[in-house]
Amino acid sequence: MPNVMIFRRFQRSISLSLAALAAAAASSSSSAAAAAAVVVVVVVVVVVVVVVVVVVVVVVVVMVVVVVLVVVVVVVVVVVVVVVVVVVVVVVVAKVRVAVVVVVIVVFKKKKKKKKKKKDKKKKKKRKNKNKNKENKNKKNKKKKKKQDKNKNKNNKNKKNKKNKKKKKKKKKKKKKKKKKKKKKKKKKNEKNNIFGQTLSTSSKKNPP
């Protein structure tokens, strides 16, 4: 009986110790899980914060870029507008200056002409006479040239005719000479034949057949 009691005590102590171990394990596992949960929550929060910060930074950067682009576009537009305005102003000023100069020149010219008309009647007459003389001279020279050309043509024609006449005369002379030569030759031949005929006739008379 004492052995059974000891064994039961021992069994009870073992079961108590196991229960204590189980309780300790349970408590430790629950604390570990809690710690793990806390860590996970902390990590998630950190990640969310980081993501939010990154998103905010990206949005800010994009906004800055957009603002910079808008500023650049505005500056470019302003510069273009200024350049166009300057060009237009320069062109308008130049045109106005040219117009003013033209008007001034026209006005002055008109004034000068009017003055000339009033004052320089003598000069005008002189110029008129000069022009008339020039015209007459040109007319005279033209007439003279025409006459010279006519004479030149006449002389050339006469020269040509003379040359042709000379050529014709020469040809005629040559022909005549040739004819004469032919006639002479014929005459000579006839004379020769006559002499030969006479000798034949005399010989036949002397020695009849």
TrEMBL record:
Annotated spans, Disordered? 114-209
| GO cellular component labels | nucleus
Biased region (Basic residues) positions are 114-131, 139-190
Keywords in UniProt for this one? Answer: Membrane, Transmembrane, Transmembrane helix
Q: Does the keyword ATP-binding apply?
A: no
Q: Which GO terms describe its molecular function?
A: ubiquitin protein ligase activity
- Listed Polar residues bias regions: 195-209
Name a single GO biological process. Answer: mRNA processing
Q: Which residues cross the membrane?
A: 42-62, 67-86, 92-108
| The protein, known as | Uncharacterized protein
Taxonomic lineage per UniProt? Answer: Eukaryota, Metazoa, Spiralia, Lophotrochozoa, Mollusca
